[in-house]
Write a structure and sequence with these properties.
The structure is a single chain. The chain is built from eleven helices and 21 strands. It is of the alpha/beta class. The strands form four sheets. Strands 10-14-13-15-16-21-20-19-17-18 form a ten-stranded mixed β-sheet, sandwiched between helices. Helix 8 (246-255) crosses helix 9. The longest helix has 13 residues, at 361-373. It is globular, with a radius of gyration of 20 Å.
Length: 374
């Protein structure tokens, strides 16, 4: 049953949306963004890359299959708030909890019943902007004054806020509806995975590819990473601006050329910066499970899952790395490689969860690269 309690979404441009409270009763602030995935709200909520953001789902119906233990992507939800059009009753044999109860239990403030199409149009035209969701205050002018004080994500190091503080081993393989958790294959490679906001399905793919995975904090030095004697280094996804992560850039510079390196999303941006390139903030980012990417080497087009608000500047990359993939919507860089330095990366999410699995082959590309170095 839909809540009758009023909630407001107030944006930095002064726009006010009135709807109903959904989830935790309270107030949440952050950058308002949108995701175009039709399903996958639980994976989206638990993706650490959404730390500091209020997520709008463009698909109107949300919550119809509830939540469960298999679809979480990190130790807890990291999205700052949740914005949707129509809440649905949970009806799925996999459901162990409703979406609204899940939000309540994890203290995530949400708002439902607003015109999400109008909101998405605002973001596309004006760019991602700061906002506040509140179900405890109805004084729009005073809320707007608080919105104006929300800092931009540019220049903030959010990775240190979501990363782990100690290294740990990951052993869980991929899960499927038909078979549950797969049997782990024999271990062939030792991989150190940097956690800048890592998703569990990345780790599952690495284990299912035969990797003994050690996850390390974002601020791990190159020396400490190499002390595990890895066959390869993985650089994870994560939230926000890559430029402030100077400690990670330093470590990656020292690691380049020593062992094979594979980066995804924020890891792709950090590898590019370590190679001498620069990044910039996109107007409204790429977030969703239907982003077309072209592999320039094969000519094939992949439909990909994405979640990022920054991109690598192509001109700054010239002479430092080869571009391997581009986004067909806006021609931004989606992949790079430096073969003689044994490193490559992609801006999108080959592990999906949620999203299509067109790009899962990249994990084999990583293991093939490690095979060559053995």
């Amino acid at each position: 049953m839909r809540s009758e309690k009023t909630a407001l979404l107030v944006l930095k441009d002064g726009t006010v949306f009135e709807g109903q409270a959904y989830g935790h009763i309270g107030e949440a602030s952050g950058e308002v963004v949108f995701n175009t995935s039709l399903t996958g709200y639980q994976e989206i909520l638990t993706d650490p890359s959404y730390h500091g953001q209020l997520v709008t789902m463009t698909y109107p119906e949300q919550g119809n299959y509830g939540t469960n233990q298999e679809d979480i992507e990190s130790r807890r939800p990291f999205a700052g708030g949740f914005i949707l059009k129509n809440p649905s009753h949970a009806s799925s044999f996999r459901s162990s909890n409703s979406l609204e109860n899940y939000l309540k239990e994890n203290k995530i403030v949400g708002i439902s019943g607003i015109d999400t199409r109008a909101l998405v149009r605002l973001i596309r035209e004006g760019g991602a902007m700061s906002g506040i969701i509140t179900s405890v205050d109805t004084d729009a002018p005073s809320i707007f004054e608080r919105v104006k004080k929300i800092p931009s994500l540019e220049g903030q190091d959010l990775a240190k806020e979501v990363s782990v503080s100690e290294f740990y081993k990951w052993r869980e393989p991929l899960w499927s509806l038909e078979d549950g958790y797969a049997s782990s294959p024999p271990i062939k490679y030792k991989v150190v995975a940097y956690d800048f906001g890592i998703k569990y399905n990345i780790l599952r793919h690495l284990v299912s590819a035969g990797c003994d995975v050690t996850v390390v904090p974002a601020n791990t030095s190159a020396k400490d990473a190499l002390s595990f004697k890895p066959d390869g280094i993985f650089l994870s996804n994560g939230p926000g601006d890559p430029e402030p992560l100077t400690y990670a850039q330093t470590a990656i510079k020292e690691l380049i050329g020593s062992v094979p390196i594979f980066g995804i999303c924020l890891g792709h941006q950090l590898l590019s910066i370590a190679l001498g390139a620069s990044t910039y903030k996109l107007k409204f980012g790429h977030r969703g499970g239907n982003q077309p990417v072209k592999d320039l080497r094969t000519g094939k087009v992949e439909i990909t899952s994405q979640n990022h608000g920054f991109a690598v500047d192509e001109k700054s990359l010239e002479g430092r790395a080869s571009v391997t993939h581009i986004n067909l919507n806006d021609k931004t860089i989606e992949g790079i490689e430096v073969p003689d330095k044994k490193c490559f990366s992609v801006q999108y999410h080959p592990e999906a969860s949620p999203g299509p699995r067109d790009a899962a082959y990249l994990f084999k590309r990583f293991t093939d690269l490690m095979d060559k170095e053995k």
